[in-house]
Amino acid sequence: MDAIFSRQFESREAAKAACSAVAKQEGFALAIRNKKPPGSDNPTYLLLRCSKGGAYRDQRNETVHESKRRNNTHSLKSECPFQINIKLKHEGPWAVAPSRSSGPHNHPFTMDFIFQAAYKAVQGCERAFPPSLGLKVQISECAIDAGKRLTFRDRIWVPGGSGEKGNQEEADKDQLRTRIVQQPHDSVATGHPGREGTLAIVARRFYWPGQSQLVRRFVANCDTCGRAHIWRQSKRGFLKPLPIPDRPRSHLSMDLITDLPPTGPSKSRYLWVIIDRLTKAVTLEVMDTMEAETCAQRFLQCHYRFHGMPRSIVSDRGSNWLSRFWKRFCQLAGISQRLSTAYHPQTDGGPERMNQEIEAYLRAYVSYVQEDWGELLPAAQLALNNRESAATKISPFFAEHGYHVDPISIQDSEEPPPDREESKAYGLLTRLQEVNEYTCKQ
C-alpha cells in the first residue's frame, strides 16, 4: 500500500529496550523501524523522538525511490505535507512497560536501615544486635546463606519499611513484602486461607520484623475475603440489656451448681443460688434434687416468707425451669419468666460470676474430703452479702438493713476448761471467726 500524504498518519511510541516505531495509516503499517541505535541509554522521550523520526525518514526515502523509478526527472524538494498524530501510551493498547517514564528505582535493601544494620552485624560476626534496632530475635539464629542473603532460622529476611500505619513512604518500602504475602494468599492452591493460614504459609520461607501485623492488615483489606468468608471479627449489634430493677428483691436471677461432693445426712449434691439483681444480695440453699416441685417449695421457705413474690426471674433453659409445673407456678404467682439465650452465658452473667465467688469461698474452708461444704453456706452467704458491690458501691447487707455486720469476737474467760459440749460451741464460733477474718481481708 502506498502512503497517502493528504491523510493523517498515526504513530505508536517505542519501548526503551529496543528503539522502534510504527507509522500506520487506515490500519496498515507503512513503515517500521526496529533497532537499537547508539545512545540507547538516553531518556525515553529522546528515544521516542529518535524512533519516530527514523520511521518517517524511512517512509520518505521509500517514497523518493519510488518516484525516481517512475520519473527520473522528478525530485523531492520539500517536506511531505502530512500531519503526525502521536498516540500516547495511555491512549493506545500497544504501549509497553519499558517505554513508560519513571524516576530512579531504589532497592528495598538500600531503604531498610534496620536490615542493613542487621546484615552488617551478622556479616561482622557480632555477638548481638545493636539495642537501638529494637529486634526481638537473637543474632545466633541469623546467618548469611550461599546467595549472600540474610536468613533467620533458615528463612529469608525480606527488607522493607517499618510498617508504620498511615506513613505512605514506609508503605512504598513494603511493596516487596506485600507481593510476597499476596502471592500465596491469592493463589488458587491456597484459596484465601485467612490471617493465620496466610501467615503460616509465608513464614515457611520468609521473615521480617512485624510480619504478623502486615499479614493482618493485608487480609483485613482483602475484598475477596470480605465477600466470601464469614467475618467473625465484625462488630455485632447491641443486645437489649435487662431493665434496672426499681426496688430490692423484686427481680431475681437464679442458677444451680451441680455435681458437688455429697454433703449432709441426705448426701445433697446441688447448690441453688438466688441473686437480687438490684442489691446483689445472694441466697444459698442446699438441694437434694433439681425437680421443679422441690424448687418451688424451697422458694416459698427461703424467699417468699421474707420478701414476698418477685416480679420476674431470670434463669437458664434447664429442664426444671421449662417444665409445665414451674411455668404454671410462675403464672399463678404473677412472676414473669425471662429465659437466657442458649449457649450464651453472657445473657445472665451475674449468677455465673457469683458461682465463681461461692466456689472460691468454699475451696478456701472446705475439709480435705470436701463433705462439709453445706455447713459453710450460712457463713458464706453472710460474707458475700457483706462485701461491697461494684455496681452500688455498698454491701447488700447494708442496703437492706442500714448497718454493717459486726465481726465475731470470742470473749476469753478465766473459767476452768469447758466440758465436751461447751468445746463444740467454742469450736463452731472459732471457725466462724476465722471465716469472717478471711472475708474481711478480701
Automatic annotation (TrEMBL):
Matching InterPro entries: Integrase_cat-core, Integrase_H2C2, Retrovirus_Pol_polyprotein, RNaseH-like_sf, RNaseH_sf
GO cellular component terms, semicolon-separated: nucleus
Keyword list, A-Z: RNA-binding
Keyword RNA-binding: yes
GO biological-process terms attached to the record: DNA integration
Domain of life: Eukaryota
Region (Disordered): 408-427
Ranges of residues in domain Integrase catalytic: 244-404
GO MF term set: RNA binding
PANTHER family to which the protein is assigned, alphabetical: INTEGRASE CATALYTIC DOMAIN-CONTAINING PROTEIN (PTHR37984:SF15), PROTEIN CBG26694 (PTHR37984)
Protein name, entry field: Integrase catalytic domain-containing protein
Organism expressing this protein natively: Hirsutella minnesotensis 3608
